[in-house]
Amino acid sequence: MLRKAIHWLLLLCLLAAIPVYAGGKLLGANVQVTDGGLGEFGEAQHADVAATGNSAVYAVWEDNRDAPSDPMFQAIYLAKSTDGGATWGANVHISDPDWEGQGLSDPAVAVGPEGNVYIVWYLGNCYYSLSNPAVCGGADRENDVHIARSTDGGATFQQGWLWDGNDDGVFNSIAPALTVDAVNGGVYATLHNYVSCSRG
């Protein structure tokens, strides 16, 4: 019985020692991308990653470090690696605080052949403020997809609307995806949009 148990232990040790490969290249150790700003109670989730092929790697995710006690609050954050993912720079707040609202989620990132960085994300709803007209552009918003572009390697971003969704109280323009043509730099995005209908 003991001999059999030792045999299984040796087998488990051998299995644990087998390296993992992807595309013929050895995957390295896990590396933390979020920095100390996330804090003890912060949450980071729904990450996406894109690489340029010249050791620059970009990661994006939704993050609640700015309001960890608010279960509905999320912001979009980015981190950049310049050494193929071995180390990561400081986490950068990407989403505009005036447009964060509730249900901010599902970020996706892509990099064009000229090095431009594109990020899209979903905004479930955003309620305007009488005291601050800049919030949500001065109107209640629902089910929108936003996009940000950087032309300087992720140092700064310009933002705008990509999709104006239905204001019907239902979260429906979810999970945007993004890619950039590696030859001509064309940007392509898709999203999952629920359309309600009724039969007479």
Descriptive overview:
With 200 residues, the protein is mainly β. It is built from one helix and twelve strands; from the N terminus they run H-E-E-E-E-E-E-E-E-E-E-E-E. It has a single domain, classed as Neuraminidase, CATH 2.120.10.10. The protein has a four-stranded antiparallel β-sheet, with no helix packed on it. Strand 11 and strand 12 form a beta hairpin. It is globular, with a radius of gyration of 21 Å. The N terminus is likely disordered.
Give me the secondary-structure category: mainly beta
Task: Please state the average pLDDT score.
Answer: 80
- What's the SSE pattern? HEEEEEEEEEEEE
Largest sheet properties: 4 strands, antiparallel
Number of DSSP strand runs: 12
Number of separate domains: 1
For this structure, what is the CATH class? Mainly Beta
Give me a quick take on this structure.
By secondary structure, this protein is mainly beta. It has one helix spanning 2-17; strands at residues 21-22, 25-26, 44-51, 57-63, 75-81, 92-93, 102-111, 117-126, 141-150, 158-163, 173-180, 187-193. A hairpin with a 7-residue loop joins strand 9 (141-150) and strand 10.
Question: Keywords for this structure?
Answer:
200 residues; mainly beta; Neuraminidase; 4-stranded antiparallel sheet; globular
Layout of helices and strands:
Elements: H1 2-17, E1 21-22, E2 25-26, E3 44-51, E4 57-63, E5 75-81, E6 92-93, E7 102-111, E8 117-126, E9 141-150, E10 158-163, E11 173-180, E12 187-193
Antiparallel strand pairs: 1-2, 3-4, 4-5, 5-6, 7-8, 8-9, 9-10, 11-12
